[in-house]
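Give me the fold.
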Amino acid sequence: QVRLLESGGGLVQPGGSLTLSCVPSGPIFNLNGMGWYRQAPGKERELVAFMEPGDDIVYADSVKDRFTISRDNPKNTLYLQMNDLKPEDTAVYYCNWKTLDGWGPEDYWGQGTQVTVSS
């Protein structure tokens, strides 16, 4: 089973920046979009940013103009550049890759990486 491997989380002060990375442990075929979600303590997992087929991108209103999702195709890596971080951005961040083939849709998730924004 292919796994998504995340890295780049950590502790940062308000106003700081972090870049998260996500790379699969093996090949993933029939890709149908990829993105980042986050879950803060006591809250439901929420969408942060998603890159749809055709490269249309959706951002949560709370992160627009601060976060940027991107993909490096040769490296098969998904990134989330996070700038001007705020305490309310503190959460576990998960990458998600979606596939779609004749058997139906499937979701791949990373193990999560902790992002803590605090002074």
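The CA atoms of residues 30 and 100 lie 6 Å apart.
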